[in-house]
Amino acid sequence: MAEPKKLYIKTYGCQMNVYDSERMAEAMGGAGYTEVATPAEADMILLNTCHIREKAAEKVYSELGRFRGLKDANPDLKIGVAGCVAQAEGAEIMRRQPLVDLVVGPQSYHRLPEMEAKVRAGGTALDTDFPEEDKFELLKSRPKARRAPAAFLTVQEGCDKFCAFCVVPYTRGAEFSRPAQRIIDEANDLVERGVREITLLGQNVNAYHGAGPKGGDWTLAQLIWALAEVDGLERIRFTTSHPNDMADDLIEAHRDCAKLMPYLHLPVQSGSDRILKRMNRSHTADSYIRLIERIRAARPDLLLSGDFIVGFPEETEEDFRATLQLIEEVRYGQAYSFKYSTRPGTPAAERAQVDADEASDRLHRLQTLLTGQQREIQESMVGRELDVLLERAGRQPGQMVGKSQYLHAVHVTAPDAAPGDMVRVRVAESVTNSLGGVLI
Questions:
Q1: Which of 11, 247, 265, 278 has the fewest Cβ atoms nearer than 10 Å?
Q2: Positive or negative, the Cα torsion across 44, 150, 370, 162?
Q3: pLDDT by residue (tens digit) across 169-227?
Q4: Other Cβ atoms closer than 10 A to 193
């Protein structure tokens, strides 16, 4: 038998890229590849890129430059760029970095094996189309390898919202929801391979409207209730949501579905109605707050996470203070906050920009407030009993690390436990970004 070829994948950005990288590895497994831990070992390097963060494309080019020595030492090494930067930059990547053999957008991963065959034959391969075929159906799983206790499962891709700062509609395309039965089948497969917690992924996941098994479109809530019937699946989460698509049946699922965890990531981005309108967010600060009140009335212990952009074009100090006021009123257990950076081709990129130093100062003040709220909510967990799904061994002898139902990382001494065990823990301490507990 031929010796397996070696594949190294580096993943940037969101959970959806993590999921996509896993599926790319499985697809390339069918082409005779096994994964390795370092680029120096590889016969093929794939960078699965993200276009959300500042200067994303330049960081990819810088990373590619570091592979030049590997390519010089091994002329047979093949290098590919995948993901959202690949979609946005296309053939420009090969022009700027001739050492790149392959560029593939997020909707064409199922074509990787044939693209790999083309570059092995001495050519180059570029595919940034939005093909009509379902890449998920064509990316069939390879050998039934054991999986970690928690896994991602993409159910929806793309976005039709066209927020003024966002490249997702251009890099991931229009909203597409996978048929419900295919998601259920994949969930069953994951559970058979050791998964006990699944996070449903989508750029706009609560806009899910996949075809139901008996006709008609299902909502995300209907999908969650069907997945709750999967024997052996203990926990369900979903991310990322839009306030405008938080439907009544999804709020009711948070109230009534025991397997749906009390954690919700619901980005607001700004507390200023003027800036929200300029962002094309289609909700107001008040409508967002009223929505949170309804959700918390249904699930009082829910931990809320959010996203914030500061220094958005034309944002004034008054606009920024409205964001701080919203945060004070809502209170977040977790949050992701960023200083606005331009994305070429988006409407906001052409507008008057906020002074960089002022934007940095606002980000510091906002993060100080959010960090204080996160610390207070973590400290409120001390003395409580939590259910913890153990995921891996900790740094100390006999220590295990897992996640609570609220997505807090929890460390516990449990020498007889194994990844995948669900244990009851009394929280004894709150430390930076995690909790410490003892087995009950």
A1: 247
A2: positive
A3: 877 888 999 999 999 999 999 999 999 999 999 999 999 999 999 999 999 999 999 99
A4: 15
414 DSSP 8-state letter: -
Query: How far apart are alpha carbons 174 and 261 in whole angstroms?
Result: 28
Of the candidate CATH numbers 3.80.30.20, 3.40.50.2000, 3.40.50.2300, 3.40.50.1000, the domain formed by 141-379 belongs to 3.80.30.20
Please tell me the CATH code under which domain 385-439 is placed.
2.40.50.140
C-alpha–C-alpha distance, residues 355 and 371, integer Å: 24
Structure tokens belonging to residue 385: 């009993």
Residues 6 or more apart whose Cβ sits within 8 Å of residue 93: 60, 61, 81, 85, 86, 100, 103
Q: Are the CB atoms for 198 and 235 separated by under 8 Å?
A: yes
List the structure tokens of 244. Answer: 């405008």
Host H or E run for residue 199: strand 197-201
Contact (CB, 8 A) for 136 and 101: no
Residue 308 contacts residue 335 (beta carbons within 8 Å) = yes
Q: Would you state the pLDDT for residue 142?
A: 46
Q: Is the pTM of this model over 0.85?
A: no
Q: By C-alpha distance, which of 383, 389, 375 is closest to 427?
A: 383
Place of tokens 């669900």: 422
pLDDT digits 0-9 by tens, 257-286: 999 999 999 999 999 999 999 999 999 999
Is residue 326 within 8 A of residue 307, CB to CB? The reply is no
Please give the CATH architecture assigned to the domain spanning 5-127.
Answer: 3-Layer(aba) Sandwich (3.40)
> Is 323 within 8 Å of 272 (Cβ atoms)?
yes
Between CA 306 and CA 9 the distance in angstroms is 29
